[in-house]
Amino acid sequence: MKEILVDNKKKFYSKLFLYKTFLYKRVMFKSSLDDEELQGIITALNIKKKSKRIEYIYDYSCNRIDKFYKGKNMCQFKDGQCINHQYPGCNIKNGCCRICINQSETGCKTSNLSCKLFYCDNVKKNNETIKFKDMKIFKLLTFRQRIIILDNFFANREEFLKELKLGLLVYHSLMIVYRLMRSSIILRKRRTSWIKK
Ligand code: SF4
Ligand code: SF4
Questions:
Q1: Total domain count, the chain
Q2: Within the chain, which residues score under 50 in pLDDT?
């Protein structure tokens, strides 16, 4: 297999739209530059099977975001209530995860990339956050896959990956509607139990 040595980041990033195509299927990328993000992108490019590359990009991105927020209480949770719900009389718990089927006593049971990239304005105005545009590795995805990442809240990892691999916006939209309906049913049940308490 042919090899390409990456020694100029700017040049490399400007050619990513080409490197990710089938034209470079028989090319391996290498770099000795000490740059975690660049090495992540190179690893992804060296995975030639489409579905495996998507899985790698997904897990790499989730881990990178987790690492960035590790040890930071961004939503300032106190007794299960985030900063938005700490006012007298409010009994809402678990912030914006409260209507999600993946939420549990110990937090999120899955890994959702859209959720990891989301913070409400209240958090964003006082903290440094990772934004979609900060994730250069997303350039390896198609336009439709990037749209899916923007708003695929409440999906579990497997559902999310399925939508990315299919890359069909119609299917993605149907799944959003399905999950919103599922969430509204859960929210109604939880509200009923709060009222009864
Ligand atoms: S992002 Fe905002 S609404 Fe969601 S849990 Fe954090 S503070 Fe609460
Ligand atoms: S999938 Fe998203 S909304 Fe659901 S529990 Fe996990 S982080 Fe919260």
A1: 1
A2: none
Q: How far is the CA of 16 from the centre of ligand 2 (A)?
A: 31
Residue 77 falls within a domain, yes or no? yes
**Where in the sequence is the domain holding 121, given as residue range(s)?**
49-196
Quick: pLDDT tens for 174-189: 999 998 888 888 777 7
Evaluate the CA torsion angle 104, 96, 98, 183 in order and state its sign: negative
pTM, two decimal places: 0.91
- Chain center to CA of 21: 23
- Nearest Cα neighbor of 103 from 83, 77, 123 is 77
- Residues enclosing ligand 1, CB less than 6 A? 75, 82-84, 95-96, 119-120, 122-123
- Residue 183 is predicted with a pLDDT of 82
